[in-house]
Amino acid sequence: MTELELDSVTKVFGDPDGEGVVAVDDVSLTVDDGEFLVLLGPSGCGKTTTLRMIGGLEMPTSGTISFDGVVVNDVKARNRDVAMVFQDFALYPHMDVRRNLGFGLRREKKNLSDEEINSEIEAVAEMLEIEALLNNKPSALSGGQKQRVALGRAIIREPRLFLFDEPLANLDAKLRKTMRTEIDELQSKVGITSVYVTHNQEEAMSIADKIAVMNGGELQQLGTPSEVFNEPTNLFVAQFVGSPDMNLFDATLIRQGDSYRVDTGTLSFDLPAALVDTDAEQVDARIGFRPQDLYQRSMRRTDGPEIEATVRVVEPLGTEAVLYADTSETDITALVSQFHDLGKGDEVTLTIAPEHIYAFEATTERLLKGRLMTERAESEVTGEVEV
Ligand SMILES: Nc1ncnc2c1ncn2[C@@H]1O[C@H](COP(=O)(O)OP(=O)(O)OP(=O)(O)O)[C@@H](O)[C@H]1O
Ligand SMILES: [Mg+2]
After folding, report:
1. Ligand 2 is a single-atom ion; what residues have CB below 5 A from it?
2. What is 4-233's CATH topology?
3. Residue ranges in the chain whose pLDDT is less than 70
4. For residues 317 and 295, what is the distance between their CA atoms, to the nearest angstrom?
């Protein structure tokens, strides 16, 4: 049971006084005991470096890493009592599954008898449903089975921390989904504090208690999946989290009494000033509409803008479809449920509730207005009137 804390952790590769690469830049965050933190960000943003510093494989250039309030910067990796799971599984090829599972236990808990070790191996194998594979060599396992053994090897040691670096990257899409649910369930069951690295935002959203979004070595935001989705601190987070991508329009916000008049050139609508985080009379902004929040006006009315668009492509996903369309300003993507009558060249009117609209300051890209949670927003929308 461990609380993990990073305090102003920086890692510079190469000469810190010269032309070093700043891989991790002044990152501070806390992971509570038993919490599942996902480090999320694009390739090269410093995720692996952060994880390796937590595991003791890399030394911070400055800042401290603490387990339960005790600084561990000088503690060697093998004495930190952390278990790491990587994307390449790293099983011992000449050992069968039983010996792969027992190897760490034999090395670290020398007082255990063979009988005790075997009973622990069997308990973990049962938990992961790999009992039937105990006598197989890794070469006789599928990718998913190998990853289960790698997880088993981490769990059996009952470490203070689990560190995962893209553990599912080599698996096919379907297996990734199954395995991520299993990792999630397993982690809740064993309750071990975990840090999980991925560049896949969907994986992060589905598995995390908290997400740390990184870019260029810097922490952009630390929050629950719903916080980073609904209240992204800046445009980068808003664009990195959520799929399909957020639609963005350049706009000017002008204060008029209790509201801001938003003008994009073709769209003009009001946002309640109380929801917009600025005192300025006029702001250059980027306005964001998530595809999930756009409705066809023929299905639902809101107080928000009405966006005329011409359908380019309808991509059915089952009960919904992704609609790619053009407006007079830019293209727009919407996720809509009524799509069977729609085809290329059709005109649609899309609309969005003001509560769901995002706004960012154009220069700083910081959030001016986030998306109110659905429940709250639904009650504030002026009705779902059929027309
Ligand atoms: N040993 C090293 N020596 C020099 N530079 C390094 C070293 N390891 C990482 N870097 C640099 O540090 C930055 C962060 O790398 P890191 O591996 O942490 O990124 P990442 O977020 O894990 O990316 P990916 O998603 O591609 O795995 C990159 O610019 C990388 O080139
Ligand atoms: Mg990496």
Report:
1. 48
2. Rossmann fold (3.40.50)
3. 16, 89, 374-387
4. 16
